[in-house]
Every structure is written in C-alpha cells, then in structure tokens.
Amino acid sequence: QVQVVESGGGSVQAGGSLRLSCAWTGRPYSSIYGMGWFRQAPGKGREFVAAFGWSDSSTYYADSVRGRFTISTDSAKSTLYLQVNSLKPEDTAVYYCAQTLGLRLGTFYDESLYDYWGQGTQVTVSS
C-alpha cells in the first residue's frame, strides 16, 4: 500500500526559507509518473504549487511561486522535496504532497491526476 508523508513545515518570518520533504513507501521509483505539491490556505480551496515529471525530470510551477520555490527528488531516499525561499505571508497554508501513476485524466496542475495524497504539513509565514 502506498503511503505519502510530508514533513518540514513550520513557522517562519517573511523572507525566510524552509525545505519540505515528502517520503513515499509502497511503490518503486520506476513505476511513478510524477509527484506534486499543492497547498490550501485558510478559507480557500486547494491550489497547485509545483510538480515533477518522472519521464524527463520536467518541473512545473504556479506563477505565484516560480523563482522562489524549487521541486526536486532523491530516488535513493524515495523522497520529494520543495525548497521554499523568500516566503511571504500569503504562502501560509497546509502543503500537501501527491503522487500520480499517470492513469487518471488531467495534467500535473490538476488534482484529478493524482492517486495518493499525504496528510499535509503546515507552513505559517508571519510579517
């Protein structure tokens, strides 16, 4: 059974940085189509943040985070990372990691593409 577990969230001041981690078990690296990060701010819907495509190591970012966030993977550790820099108060949200096998309809930007989700990790940015 696939499990996806996020960690690394916390409280930081504006301009600070964090590295979010997402460890998965139950599925070999070679069978994964891609993984992504989404976030949900208080009172808002969940939104796409970044994604990593396995086939060609392609990366995708929301306009609001491009240039500040970096997504990467470590296959040996079965871990996905999101380096978040220059944090802003509007980045405050619960950050979710998700994994896709590539069998559902949608693009990397769509929640519908993803098969497995973690429980989320809280990021709070104060001004």
Short account of what is shown:
With 127 residues, the protein is mainly beta. The chain is built from no helices and eleven strands. 0% of the residues lie in helices and 50% in strands.
Mind explaining what this structure looks like?
There is one protein chain. With 127 residues, the chain is an all-beta fold. Helices cover 0% and strands 50% of the residues. It contains no helices and eleven strands. Strands 2, 4, 5, 6, 9, 10 and 11 form a seven-stranded mixed β-sheet that branches. Strand 5 and strand 6 (58-61) form a beta hairpin. The protein starts with a strand and ends with a strand.
Gross geometry: globular
Q: What is the mean pLDDT?
A: 96
Classify the beta-strand content into a percent band: over 45%
Rg result: 14 Å
Write the layout of secondary structure elements.
Elements: E1 3-7, E2 10-13, E3 18-25, E4 34-40, E5 46-53, E6 58-61, E7 69-74, E8 79-84, E9 93-100, E10 116-117, E11 121-126
Parallel strand pairs: 2-11
Antiparallel strand pairs: 1-3, 3-8, 4-5, 4-9, 5-6, 7-8, 9-10, 9-11
Spell out the key features of this protein.
globular; 127 residues; 7-stranded mixed sheet; single chain; 4-stranded antiparallel sheet; mainly beta
